[in-house]
Every structure is written in C-alpha cells, then in structure tokens.
Amino acid sequence: MTTAALLEVQGLTKHFPISSGILQTTTGWVRAVDGVDIAVQSGETLGLVGESGCGKSTLGRLIVRLQTPTAGSIRFNGAEIAGLGEAAMFPFRRELQIVFQDPYSALNPRMRIGELLGEPLRIHRKVRGAALDREVRGLLEAVGLPAAAATRYPHEFSGGQRQRIGIARALALRPKLIVCDEPVSALDVSIQAQIVNLLQDLQERFGLSYLFISHDLSVVRHVSDRIAVMYLGRIVEQAPAEALFRRPLHPYTRALMAAAPAPDPRVTVMVAPLEGNVPSAAAPPPGCHFHTRCPYAADICRREPPPALEAYGDGHLVRCWRVAEIG
After folding, report:
1. Are the C-beta atoms of residues 195 and 112 closer than 8 Å to each other?
2. Tell me: the pLDDT tens digits for 159-189?
3. Which tens digit of pLDDT belongs to each residue from 239-266?
4. What does the alpha-carbon distance between residue 127 and residue 271 come to, in Å, rounded to a whole number?
5. What stretches of the chain adopt beta strand conformation (E)?
6. pLDDT (tens digit, 9 = 90+) per residue, 213-226?
7. What pLDDT is attached to residue 268?
8. 161 backbone dihedrals φ, ψ, rounded to 5°
C-alpha cells in the first residue's frame, strides 16, 4: 500500500512581473517556476539540482510560503497550503522551515543567539523563563555549539558556526520538513562536510524530511534518496540518486554531470559540454526550453513542450521528446 507523500507539489508556477515606465506598467513576466511537480516522502531527502537561475531557490521559498504561488498546488501532510493567508498559514510554520544559503545575512545582527533561537519558541510554543533557556541550550547542543553561545552575537561566530545556528533555528519548532537552500555553498570545503554530516545526524534523530537544494552534484548524491533536475523553471528528470548517476537519461542531466569535476582527472568525459547560455526566464524558448542547447534537438522539440514526466524504468521520470532514441 502506497502512503501519501508528506509534501506534494503539482503544477506549481511563479511568475514575477516586469515593470517599466513612470507608471510601472507590467510589460512582461519572468517565469521563475513554470509548472513543477515533485513529492517528498516522510523521512526522505529529495535533492534538487540545476544551474544558477533555474528557479531552485524560488521553488523552495514557494514551498515554505515565503512567496505566494501564481498557480498550482502545494499539499503538506494532506492539507492544501498554496492559497492560505498569513493567519491560516501560521500553524503550518511550525512544521515547514528553511535553512538559507548565506549564514551571514540570515541572522539578525542585533539579536543575541539565545534571542534568535528563543523567538520562534515564544511565538509558537509559548515557552517562557527557565523552560525557554533549557530549550535554547538543547538546540545549541544538538548542533554542536556550547550553551555559552546563547549570550553572544552573530558577528562573533564563523560562517560554519552561523550555519549551525541557522539549522538550530529551523529545528526549534520540531518541523517535519526543512528546505535546505544551498546550505553549504558559502562555506569552506572542510566545513561543508561537517554541516552535511550534521544535517544527516539530525534527520535520523528527529525523523526530518529535507528538500536539499544545491548545484554541487557530489553533495547532492551523498545526501539524497532521490534527485530532481531543474532547468529554466521545469523539472526535466527525477530518479533515485544512484540510478540517476548510474544512468542519466535527459541530455541536460548528462551535461551537468559532464561539467562536474571528475574525481580522477585521467577519466575522459564522453559528453560534450553545453554551448551557449541559459535562455532568459522572461522569454523562454518555445517547445522544450532546453532545445536551444541540446545536441539531440529535433523539430518537435522546437515546436511543442514535452509531455509531463514519463517513467523509463529504474524509478526514472523524464521530460524529453528524444529520450527513447538517445537513452
């Protein structure tokens, strides 16, 4: 029997207006997220990869409702949250949290760490006094920081320590799902490994689910159960992590993997690198968005968008007209 996913996203769309002139008349739209379907199971990590500007971070912000979708559905734990106002969204804030990319700008520099971690506890769980202090100390301990950190300010910590504080803040309300938006990309490589290991330890300890957004394929492969590949606002491939790396099917996924640094420089990559730049999300190409850079593009790719994600074995879901011929 298949259980319902913790998070189900269907047809999610976010268009930002382009305004010009003195009256700020809308002259066009940036299609940042353009009809995305994904799901995250309880206790699962879904990796989300793609080039910069493809809409990954916007998708993450939509899911935790820091931004309002233009269209589409977000079902969390069986409840539709895409159209909820602030008051109706309030109870869901406890169960949906986010860890931001930049640990320097994510923390209020005027608040002590104890205040930063205690704020959501006071607002949502009505914890006060000694009980609040105990909760804050427990959060700091969970992320590997001393209790004395509660009396200090963000500027007194390194980047890796600040990211630990950001994780502790996301963990404060014991959420079911955390969106990790490039949580290690701003950190040194040695610190990246520590933060990734911390996230995995916390997932096992608290039964968390993650949407892990990154452009680093090696990190995503290490942490993810499944991976979704995003290009210009659309998901073009989904698969279990090892199946995706063993047999990538979409031409874009293959090119991403070919562009990643090889662990062994003596290994020759047989896939040609992509040519050209990512098209503008304000004027995406007709048909398949990837056809302007795809070496396999045919006439139908230029005329019509590929159908919804289709199954191709090994848990693969692919959105491509030519996958049967090139797979």
Report:
1. no
2. 999 999 999 999 999 999 999 999 999 888 8
3. 999 999 999 999 999 998 887 766 555 4
4. 56
5. 7-20, 25-40, 45-49, 71-76, 79-80, 96-99, 177-181, 209-213, 226-231, 234-240, 310-311, 317-318
6. 998 898 999 999 99
7. 47
8. -65, -40
The CA distance from 322 to 60, in Å, is 29
- Would you give the DSSP letter of residue 81? -
Residues 261-274: pLDDT tens digits?
A: 665 554 444 555 67
Kindly state the percentage of the chain with pLDDT values over 70.
95
Q: Are 292 and 285 in contact (CB under 8 A)?
A: yes
Cα–Cα distance measured from residue 264 to residue 269, given in angstroms and rounded to the nearest whole number: 11
DSSP-assigned states of every residue in 90-134? GGGGGTEEEE-S-TTTSS-TTS-HHHHHHHHHHHHH---HHHHHH
Return the CA Rg of the chain: 21
Nearest to 36 by CA among 20, 5, 60: 60
**For residue 176, what are the contacts with CB-CB under 8 A and spacing of at least 6?**
6, 42, 77, 95, 96, 207, 208, 209
Q: How do strand 71-76 and strand 7-20 relate by DSSP bridges?
A: antiparallel
Is pLDDT of 84 > 70?
yes
Give phi and psi for 286, each to the nearest 5.
-70, 165
Which two structure tokens, joined as six digits, stand for 118?
């205690």
Cα gap 1→258, rounded to integer Å: 38
| Residues 314, 249 contacting (CB under 8 angstroms) | no
| Cα 257-266-241 angle, rounded to 5 deg | 30
Contact 142, 208 (CB under 8 A): no
